[in-house]
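During the practical work, I worked with a single protein chain and the tokens that describe its fold, as given directly below.
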Amino acid sequence: MNPQEKNAKVILDQRPSTWPEEGKIDLNIHDLPHRGAIIEWWYQNCHIISKDGDRFSLFASFFRLASKKDEDEDDYSYAHFIIWALSDKVNQKYYTDSLVDPSMPAESLKVLSKKEETINKQFYRALKEVYSKGNVPFPDRLLKEEANVSLDNLSLEYDQNSFKKDQNGNYHLVLDNPLDKIECKLEFIPLIEPVRHGNQGELYGIWKEDMFYYFIPKCKVNGEIYIDGKSYQVEGSGWYDHEFSKSGDETAVRDFRHDMSWDWISLQLDNGFQMSLYDLYDNTKNGEYAGGTGIIIDNEGKRISVEDYSYTPVEYWTSSRTFISYPISWELEIPSFNVSMFVTVDFPEQEFITTLSMPAFWEGSIKASGKFMGAGVTGVGYSERTGFNTKESIESFLKGVGKITQNVVESLLPLNPTDDQFHKLINSPVGIDFFSPVDKEQYVTSVIKPIREIVDRSKKAWRSYVLLACIDAVGGNSQPFIDILAMPELIHSGSLIVDDVQDSSDTRRGGTSLHHLYGEPLAINAGNTCYFLGDLVVKKSLIQDDVRLKIYELYFEMMRAAHAGQGLDISGLHLLMPDAVSSGDSSILEKRIYTIHRLKTAAPACTLAKIGGIIGGGKPEQIEALANYFEAIGLAYQIVDDVLNLEGYENNLKDKGEDITAGKITMPVAKAMGLLPLDKREYIWKTIQTMPKDTTVIGSVIKLLEECDALSLCRKEAENIMEDAWKDVEEILTDSFYKMRLRAFGWYALKIE
């Protein structure tokens, strides 16, 4: 693809009369809100330093979005939003705030009620629950008052946040985040004339709408910021841009879609030049490249358009909150200007979570160094990446969790470990000096490879997600603890390996069971080894000693409970079946099955939720509510799993009716004892005792269970268990992005749409 094809220019059908004509842009007109625009925003970023050398970066964007057309006038009513973030580069902290219009819950609920969501039904259902209460999910907050926007001069007031221009043409930005106790009061003094971006100012927007875009990339900034009561007098460099659309059909407004995604970068270089680049991608065409533009501004303010640029990601970082991977370093090349620079983020954790661009976008401070026209150059700037994950489903999200979980396990259990990695894995109480290269090779073959065989097949890791999700749900930050993903996955994988031996299972996770590949002795040893590897990631994480001690206590409680449940499950419930068959009373049988499920599956899920809540610093009542919720999900999940064993799993992950072949008494079988006539109860019990392998015989049992509604009743019971537990979570936890994810996850786990 040649540069001209790569950076195809946007050609608009018709230039609106409200847009600037060719030549100099009159800021007295075009800084103001534009009548009829569907969407418009005013954006600022800056890089500032205090007198004591504290370094900060900041961006803010004030949005004005058409919500509906006035009946009597050919104009729109508008909703207003503001998003902003402060990056503390010394302490690597990212403070965000997003305020949305009071009309958003009701208006968004109207849109969602009409929307046929096919990709992420559970998440949108959870979002509708929040909106129906008149709330928005935290970290978004509702504006307390309607925004005050002047049409005669640039004056935007969104609660205590404002952006105004004075008579001298200088811009004044005030930002206030009471939750994080942050306030910013900054003045932007333009040093050059405004510059047109895109094709002489024209480009596409979020919904493929025609936009006009100008910017002032060189401003002097001074003022004061306050963080938790501490004041910083600051000064530095700033950037201002303004973007506004044509008028259009209001049906496109607030439609919860991102037709376009983009990568955008702004740079202010120490040689007096500035530059801005963007690449657009069409989400309606599977992310097909849709053009882009590079603009260089020389030290006299002259605009130079470039098309032969490349902005190539080198490294990626994955968020533990959304499991989206974002570029954190790039190679920037502009051959015609002999530009070759390496760009990197000041720190990775600058992800912005908001329903305004679901599920999140990345916008943060960056730095650059390299060559510009052959001379050495450095610079600071901002990068934004948005719109790339708008079609994410819970399925794809959990696959993202699974991918990172596999990476974490791979780093813990590499197939070609160094001597140091090998020694840490063994950590023998009798020393390590006697180990030889042959010992390491044999350990890999007999321990690491069998474990990795099962772990690497895992496509989703919902148990691992539980732990991190609960950290965030109580107000903590899961990112420093992402390595802990390995612990739940290894525990579960170990239990699967041993369980397959005990049940003589032939398949696991779409492949041959481990004991058929390595033999039962090595499989059992590998499964047991998994239980003790989680300690290595807990030990090296940033967990305080008292919290780590509590985690160990909970861990061993969980393992005792799970093994008790496994023992009860293996010994079976055959002794109870004759009475249940003869009497048609299944109550005792069902109660015993509940006990096994609680110990085997619910107790681990409950424990992981507790560990997450404790690490996140949650209040006791929050931790208890989350623990009960995930205990309920674990119990309900196992009931549904019993149903799926009879109906068949997606992608044939297990053999259909495997529990019948194993002679197990599961909840659907128990439930049927209270629903079927005696002769059919006797047939089912007699057949299960023979542990049939003939698919016709297995099918006859499944048919009876379906006809008496045992399967549907099990599903309904599972749903009721989860819904009852959710009531406490609903009452105790504030509505948030993370709480919505937990809600949606519960429905997903039980296959409820």
About this structure: The first helix runs from residue 3 to 6. The chain has 21 helices and 26 strands. The chain has three domains: 3-10+31-386, 393-542, 543-753.
